């Protein structure tokens, strides 16, 4: 019973985080969410490979129905990346999700419709060091959103791969953290200061989320779709596709840095002799 109340409270917090827009926006979000209710996210296979670990025991206390929970978060990811189930969506036939007694946090592997994601029981134990169940549940959901994004997101074409091109890497990891950001998967103080969108992960993720909030509410969907339309893909070509030809990725980054206070602009006043 405590677990259900806790989860409801946390999910309520997530809804509150997202409800800053107008009632019209909220109604649109609800309608879109309902369109994904029956979308086949893939056959989910949950495999606890470390049942003897404390991390496993903790996980099962906070996630009582792993398959349903993973499917729920998968639909959250899909509704963030795509307009509707009729879009060109990366097919996932089977999703293997495992708890493993290993280093690291979590990672996605596989492809061609067969996806695997592991979650480290050691990380679970570290995250639960202060016996803060709410904090652990928050982290578990955030990590899952990130990895599920990798399962369903589209990838740039014509410029190499994740392992051979930093642009591809920055886009893929940045989008995964952007999906986590816009769905309330990070704490307010998690945004890194400075850097560059080519740093990927949170640095790019918060930037992409800012573009969604300040330039176009459908930015992430259009940015994801750009991988099918902009070939060879580039950050600049993608933002022009998503926002318009007048936009430039580096100018947008500069605007973002000023807006969030990471870059100070000095107001220079010229003294003119009369």
Provide structural commentary.
The structure is a single chain. With 274 residues, this protein is α/β, with parallel strands linked by helices. The protein folds into 2 domains: 35-152, Collagenase (Catalytic Domain) (3-Layer(aba) Sandwich); 157-263, no CATH class. Helix content is 52%, strand content 9%. It has helices at residues 2-18, 23-34, 54-62, 66-81, 121-127, 133-152, 166-182, 201-214, 219-229, 235-243, 249-259; strands at 43-48, 94-100, 106-111, 114-120. A 4-stranded mixed beta sheet has the order 1-2-4-3. Helix 3 crosses helix 5 (121-127) and helix 4 crosses helix 6 (133-152). It is globular, with a radius of gyration of 20 Å. The N and C termini lie far apart (78 Å). Residues 1-22 have low confidence and may be disordered.
Helix residue percentage: 40-55%
Low-pLDDT sequence parts? 1-22
CATH class of the largest domain: Alpha Beta
**CATH architectural designation of the largest domain:** 3-Layer(aba) Sandwich
- The helix-strand sequence is HHEHHEEEHHHHHHH
* C-alpha-based Rg, rounded: 20 Å
Q: Which whole number gives the mean pLDDT? A: 89
Work out the helix count. 11
Report the principal-axis shape.
globular
Structural class label: alpha/beta
Number of separate strands:
4
Q: What keywords describe this structure?
A:
four-stranded mixed beta sheet, Collagenase (Catalytic Domain), alpha/beta, 2 domains, 274 residues, disordered N terminus, 11 helices
């Amino acid at each position: 019973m405590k677990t259900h109340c806790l989860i409801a409270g946390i999910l309520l917090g997530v809804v509150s985080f997202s409800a800053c827009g107008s009632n019209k926006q909220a109604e649109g979000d609800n309608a879109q969410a309902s369109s994904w209710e029956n979308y086949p996210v893939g056959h989910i296979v949950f495999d606890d490979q470390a049942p003897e670990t404390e991390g496993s025991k903790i996980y099962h206390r906070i996630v009582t129905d792993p398959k349903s929970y993973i499917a729920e978060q998968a639909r959250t990811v899909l509704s963030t990346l795509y307009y509707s189930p009729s879009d060109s969506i990366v097919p996932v036939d089977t999703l293997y999700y495992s708890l493993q007694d290993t280093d690291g946090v979590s990672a996605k592997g596989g492809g061609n419709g067969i996806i695997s994601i592991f979650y480290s029981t050691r990380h679970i134990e570290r995250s639960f060091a202060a016996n803060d169940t709410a904090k652990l549940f928050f982290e578990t959901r955030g990590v899952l959103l990130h990895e599920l994004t990798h399962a369903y997101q589209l990838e740039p074409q014509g410029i190499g791969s994740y392992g051979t091109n930093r642009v591809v890497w920055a886009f893929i990891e940045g989008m995964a953290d952007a999906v986590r950001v816009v769905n309330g998967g990070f704490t307010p103080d998690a945004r890194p200061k400075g850097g560059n969108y080519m740093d990927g992960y949170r640095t790019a993720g918060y930037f992409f989320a800012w573009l969604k909030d300040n330039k176009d509410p459908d930015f992430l969907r259009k940015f994801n779709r750009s991988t099918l339309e902009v070939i060879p893909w580039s950050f600049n070509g993608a933002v022009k596709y998503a926002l318009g030809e007048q936009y430039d990725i580096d100018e947008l980054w500069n605007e973002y840095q000023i807006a969030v206070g990471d870059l100070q602009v000095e107001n220079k006043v010229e003294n003119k002799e009369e």
